[in-house]
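JOB MANIFEST
job_type = single_chain_structure
chain_count = 1
residues = 299
[input]
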Amino acid sequence: MTTSPFVLVPAPAFVGRGLKGTDRLPRALLDAGLADRLLADVIDGPGPMTWPRALDAVAEQPPFDVIRDYLLRLADDVEAVLRDECMPIVLGGDCTMLLGAGAACQRVSVDGLLFVDAHTDFWPLGDPDWETASCDLRLVTGFAPDGMPDGLTGLTKRSCFDAAHVAALGFRDGSDEGEAGAALRETAILRLPLAHIRDRGFGNAVDAALDRVASQERRFWLHLDLDVLDDAVLPAVDYRLPGGLSVGEVAAILRRACETGVLAGMTVTILNPDLDHDGRQTALAVDLLAAGLRMDEAR
């Protein structure tokens, strides 16, 4: 039994090429005082992702069955916290961790997803570029491609979240444009890119996103990839893009999500402590999460 409404679930894993270092995100945030700032409990989580590593070109890519087993262990941890009527905050790792959280949400009828990310992560999963961190939104909404590797069968074949209850907010990678964006545009996912936010107004965009994911008091999950922040403020991420949301805007999204009363939990991903040489960006991330999730800190 936990003693706090917040339970931090470390998931120190990375899957994609170029994402090494993001597995140190949980330890960095905890060392920077996140648990104290949130008055949160911390559980062990699934631990590091380990696999026999051959000395070859794909040594940083775990086999699909290793990814699946890790994510199912993460799902068990998240489900236990949700059933304890607390809010799990999964500290990734990369965006692949959303698949484990989504599996848990499916088990306990958490139906909505607010996806706050610089990228839509809706790229196809193909060989050799099969990075699950680049297609997690595609997989959790049930748009797995034909030929899904056997190792992920049973985790991503079904939708964890109905696309009609999903909003992608703040992305700036142009992934809903042109021929490449056709697959995303054909879904019912509400797309609110950074350009829309700037054209229509931040508050209006957040209203639209929350109306989609939390209507009729539907419980929802919030996925926060920290690269949604302005690159000039937080460049310690791996797939950088110019521009982005301000710290105040992201904190406001978290506050507004909490104020709905139906936010079930969240994932926090992609900050790479190896690129944060003086620790200031990690401290900024802690400040942001505390300001967004703790109403007393926000005042």
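[summary]
The longest strand covers residues 263-269.
The mean pLDDT is 89.
exit_status = 0
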